[in-house]
Structures are given as C-alpha cells and as structure tokens.
Amino acid sequence: MRKLSVKNILFIILILGFLSPFLVLGYFLQIYTYDISSLVDYNPSQTTRIYDKDGNKIANLFDKKHRYYAPFEEIPPHVIEALVAIEDTSFFEHPGINVDAIFRAAIKVIKAGRAVEGASTITQQLVKNVLLTREKKLSRKIKEAIYALKLERHITKEQILERYLNEIYFGHGYYGIKTAADGYFHKRLDELTLKEVAILVGLPKAPSTYAPTKNYEISMGRANRVLKRMKVLGWIDEVTYQEEIASNPKVYDDTLTQNQAPFIVDEVVRRMSKKGMDDIKTGGYNVYTTVDLSLQEAAREAVKKAYELSLERIEEYKIKDQQILEKDPTWEIAPDVNTSLLNGALVSLEAKTGNVLAMVGSTDYEKSSYNRATQGRRQPGSAFKPFIYQVGIDLGYSGATKLVDVSRTYKYEKDGEELKWQPKNYEKNYKGLISLREALVHSRNLATINLVNEIGLNQLLKQLDKFGIENLPRDLSVSLGTISLSPLQLAKYYSSFANDGIQVEPSLILSIEKNDEVVYEKEEVTHFITEPTQAFIMTSILRDVVNRGTGRRAKAWGIELAGKTGTTNNNVDGWFAGYSPTIQTIVWFGNDDNSPMHRWETGGKIAGPAFKMYYDSVLKLYPQIKRKFDVPEGIVEVKVGKRKEYFSNISKPPRVEKELKATEELLF
Q1: Burial of 58 by CB count in 10 Å (0-12 exposed, 13-18 middle, 19+ buried)?
Q2: How confident is the model at residue 103 (pLDDT cuts 50, 70, 90)?
Q3: Quick one: which of 486, 565, 60 has its CA closest to 268?
Q4: What percent of the chain has pLDDT over 90?
Q5: pLDDT at 658
Q6: Which of 252, 263, 268, 266 is nearest to 296 (CA)?
Q7: Is 273 exposed, middle or buried (0-12, 13-18, 19+ CB in 10 A)?
C-alpha cells in the first residue's frame, strides 16, 4: 500500500477550495469511503469462443461487450511502453494523479479560455470507465481523482495496467486490447508488430475517430504520433522508428460474432445450457468442437444445391404431367406442391468416434434457424429397413437367403373395428422369390414384411431393442419405418453398420475450458451391436444399394459408399442414410408441415444427390481419405449364381451346415 503524500493531500484540498473549509475534509473522506471493489476484485464479462476440431474459430458468443481477457503476463512489454508513452509517461512514478500535469493543463485552460489539454492518468481513465459517468463536471473530476488515489493504495501498478488494457474500448465493438488485436489484425498480442501496437494504444483517446476500419489514414497518423513519442523518450531507436513509420498493416473488418456455422453455435449453446453453464455469453469459455469447418461449408452447399435442383424438378414434373394427360385422359395430375415449405438437413459424423463433422439444420439459416438435424422428428421409411435385415443376418440369414416377395392382406382390429392392410411395393409388382440382398438393394416392401413374419414380430422387436431405438411401433408397420427420428438419432443407429458393429454416441463438443481449467471433456460411449463380420455383410449389401440400387444418385466416383434411401407414404419424407469407410452421413428433405412432396420426388432423387455432392467435396478436401471398406477376418467370399456373396460362421453359405472351417476347405 502507498501512503498519500502531503503534497497530494494539499492538492486535493486546493481543488476543493470552492467549498467551505469546514466541509473540505468531510467531503474528501466521504468520497474516499466509496466502494471500489468492482475494480479491486475485477471480474468483467468475457466472450466465449467456439472452435472447430483444428482450432479454427467458429464464432464469438457474448452478451453486451465483446472481450477477450489478457492477464498481465500475456501482455508484451512494448505494449506497456507504447501505452505509457502516449497516455501517461510518469505512470510508474505518480500515486494515481499527476499534479504537475494538472497544473499545466489548468494554466493552458486559463490562457485559452477552454479545455485544450487533459491531465487524466491511466488510473483516472480506468476509474472513469468503470466507476463514473462521462459527464464533464467538476464534481466528477474530483471523484475521479480521489478514486484514483484510493485505487493505487489497494492494487499494484501492474494490476491497474491489466485492468485498463482489458476494460478500455478500442472501437469496432472491441473491449480490451486482446480483443482488438484479434479483431483488427487476426493476431495474438505477442504476434503484433510495433506499428500495430501503436495503432491499438492510440485508439482509446477517440475510438470512433481513430478506428482503422473507418479512418485508416487518420489511424495511421495517430499511430505515428505514438511511435514518435516513443522515439523522443528514447524507448525505440531511429532505425526502428523509420521502419515502423513506413509500414501499413493489413486491417480486417469482421463482424463481432464471426459466426461461420450458426447451426453448430446454436447446438453448442443448447448443450452447454443443459450442462448448467448458464453464463455462456459472459463466462469466457473456450469450446472445442468436433466440427470440421471445411466440411460444414460443403454440407451447407450440398443441402442448398439439392434444394434448388428439387425446385427445378417440380417445374419439369408439371410438364411431364401434362404430357401424360394428353395421352391418357384418366391421368390424375398431382396437386400443386407448396415449394416454400420444402426444407432439408444433413448431419455427418466420423464413424469410429461419433464426432459430428458437419451439421446443417435447414436450407437457409437466415430464413429458418430451426435445426431439423437435431430437433426434427420424421419417419425414415425404407431407410429403417437395414435394422430389420441386420436382425435377420445376425440370426443366420445371408445375402443369398431367399425371401418371398408376394402380396398379402393383413387383418387387424382398431377401436373394435376390423380393418385390412394390404401393403405394396413401390414398383407395384412382385418378384415371387428374391434374395435378401436384392430385396434390400431394391427396397422391396413385401419381401421385408415377409422377412419380419419369418423372424416373428416379437423376436424382431426383441432383437431391435439392442440398437436402443426408442418408441418402436409394436406392429408390422415397423417394417416400413413408421417410427419418428431426427437425422442425428438415425446417424447414431447407423453407426452400428458404419463402425463394424459398434454403435457410437454422437458427440459435438470435445472439451470446454474456463480460466485455463478443463470443465468438460468428451467421454466416448459405445455399445456392441453385432460382430464385424455381420456388420460387413450389411455394408456389402448397402454398397450395392449405391452402386446399382435405389441409391444410385448418391454414388460419388473414387470412393466406396454404402447406404439406403428412404421415402415415406405419399412422398412426405425423402432420406439418404449412408457412409464411407470413415464418415457417415444422413440427409433428409421434406415439407415442414408434413404435406407430401411431389409424387415423383423420392429419397433417392432429392437426398441422394446431396449425399453425393457432399462426398465429392470430401474427396477434394481430403484426397488421402480411406476409400475402400476393410473385409474383416472370418468373411468368406463365394460366387452364388452370377454374383459374389459374403458369408461368415453365423451367416453360412446355402445348404452347408458344417463349421466355417470345413466350409472353407470344401470351397477352396
């Protein structure tokens, strides 16, 4: 603690001389007892920063003031020198006020008849910004001086500088020098050139006037005066001065939030709120996400382009309807589709970890910020079929197993009334007998329902429970995917195929730090579903879906992809759910009011191209990515008819009942 000198006390008495001598001491003591704890125990609001998996900033989150906090140890010496040189040269000598400077300023005011020079120290400026208003009254200046004297008795000079450099406004919405360095120059404090430092320390005098984003030349002139002052004081040499005077730093004119992925940011906020972190916009968190910003942009573009292509097809469908009507007067033209209600979503995850790489919740965030990838619940339709077929494969079925593809009528009772259900294939035809592989490749509804009957509904539901799927319908409609799921939920369940039989819980946040301490860290949650061999058999079938089945529009050249289309009754929803050897992706499209899309708009047509466009971008961004699926140990490849088929010790070749080893000896 520093004691007030007699000289300083006399100065206070003099400037309060207009008061009655009997009140001077009382007035001084009254102000001196005011609370300054907000500066002593300084704890300002701080901006939360969200980063992608590679450390690229996704966004800033703040309430009223955008501020990054820099402790004194983080502030380079030349920042302190430049600040003191231009604002308060005797900062380290005075007790909070500079008496000599005040007298000099007073004399100039008297001579000029107006205020021509200020005399506030750095300490006084800090006090004014935090504790007082900006009103130009003598009473405020008196309080400012007394508070400054008191503050310097409670905290060190270094602490005053730390508070000043974190509190003061630097223009453009930036509070604190660390914030300004990042905003104007995209640099850390220790990366700043001396000219950039001079620009920053010159700002607090008149932030609007000197902001380099508004008045670049004026800002450079102010910075040059800072450099000149440093040279005059002998703190920099002539060579350095000339070099820095000649430099013209690049200045960025960014938005404050810098929000590059609004759906990601909204979801991060939602998840942090669920964890009880209610000070998200003031707590100064560093949030490290799983997101890849490059893939996030690729996903956004894929959804947008697929949406635009769908709108173009609507016009083509109208022409096609008219052409058919001319040939067939009985043709019923499809009703007009409200294209303004069409929307889409995409979520992409790393197959092994469940880390969310990209998440897009609508075709345009500015038009709709509702995140359909996490909050929307829609029926997956045929995209659900692989779970039913996986149950069959785990029970010993193989791709070569024959299924019955014929129509049947099912009777059931509802509210005391007997009703009939007669499902059909999308193609309105029947194959009689069809292999399990071909049934799924071509999404045959009747073969799927008959598979369920073969397995037994109760047995199927029991086996489906291992996937952890909630609210499954407990009737045959489960065959056609009549459960409501979000794209992210479906992605979780599809990881059972993409990750060799191990289901992975999706994750968006890797870790969260506050005050350099880790307050949250991701824990990987996995669940065994099936053996790698059985998952591979499913992958081999879903690979055929893409190569020659209903998912042909999802095929991206140069990489193996597996997946399944999904189109619900009356073309209400269109899905493509699939994966590469390392990345799984779910795409959904539909009208927000659950009304039908056009009757020719299917999951393969609308969602498949978005999937393809996304993986085309993946290959351009990461050409080294793994491109072929691994064949796990224990898989036997056999030619059945004209096609290759895969078998294991669970899914054995047709008509062979011996152990797998004996089967291998027999075949090879």
Answers
A1: buried
A2: low
A3: 60
A4: 71
A5: 42
A6: 263
A7: exposed
Confidence of residue 657 (pLDDT cuts 50, 70, 90): very low
State the Cα angle at 369 between 368 and 371, rounded to 5°.
110
Please give the span between the terminal C-alpha atoms of the chain, in angstroms, as a whole number.
Answer: 91
Mean pLDDT of 567-574: 93
Distance, in Å, from the CA atom of 151 to the CA atom of 40, rounded to the nearest integer, reads 7
Q: What is the pLDDT of residues 601-612, one digit of tens each?
A: 999 999 999 999
Question: Token match 């709709």: residue?
Answer: 368
> Contact 576/603 with Cβ under 8 angstroms?
yes
User: Are 304 and 364 spatial neighbours (Cβ–Cβ below 8 Å)?
Assistant: yes
Question: Residue 214, SS3?
Answer: coil
Measuring CA to CA, which residue among 242, 243, 205, 202 is closest to residue 219? 202
- E strand intervals along 427-539: 432-435, 502-504, 509-514, 517-521, 526-528
Tokens of 390: 């996986």
Q: How far is CA 414 from CA 218, 243, 421, 457, 483, in A?
A: 80, 87, 12, 18, 19
Whole-angstrom distance, CA of residue 88 vs CA of residue 123: 9
Are 236 and 194 in contact, with CB atoms under 8 Å apart? yes
- Whether the per-residue pLDDT at 4 is higher than 70: the answer is no
CA dihedral of residues 352, 356, 358, 361 (deg, nearest 10): 130
- Asked whether the whole model's pTM tops 0.85, one would answer yes
Helix ranges (DSSP H) in 211-357:
216-232, 238-246, 262-274, 293-327
- The three-class DSSP label of residue 642 is coil
Strand 573-579: give its sheet, edge to edge.
356-360, 342-350, 583-591, 573-579, 562-567
CA-nearest of 57, 498, 513 to 284 is 513
Confidence band of 17 (pLDDT split at 50, 70, 90):
low
What's the DSSP call for residue 235?
A: S
Token pair listed for 441: 């490749």
Spell out a b/e string for 182-213, using b for 16 or more CB atoms within 10 Å of the CB, else e: bbbbeeebeebebbbbbbbbbbbeebeebbbe
Residue 229 to residues 85, 103, 108, 157, 221: CA-CA distances in angstroms? 6, 22, 21, 21, 13
CB-count burial class (<10 Å; 0-12, 13-18, 19+) for 458: exposed
- The DSSP annotation for 130-179 comes to HHS-----HHHHHHHHHHHHHHHHHS-HHHHHHHHHHHSB-STTEESHHH
Query: Which residues are catalytically annotated?
Result: 87, 382
- For 155-175, give one letter per residue: b (16+ CB within 10 A) or e: bebebbbbbbbbbbbbbbbbb
> What does the alpha-carbon distance between residue 206 and residue 181 come to, in Å, rounded to a whole number?
17
The yes-or-no verdict on residue 651 having pLDDT over 90 is yes
Token pair of 406, please? 């014929």
Quote the mean pLDDT of the chain. 89
Average of per-residue pLDDT across 395-407: 93
Place of tokens 């291998």: 664
What's the confidence (pLDDT) of residue 9? Answer: 59
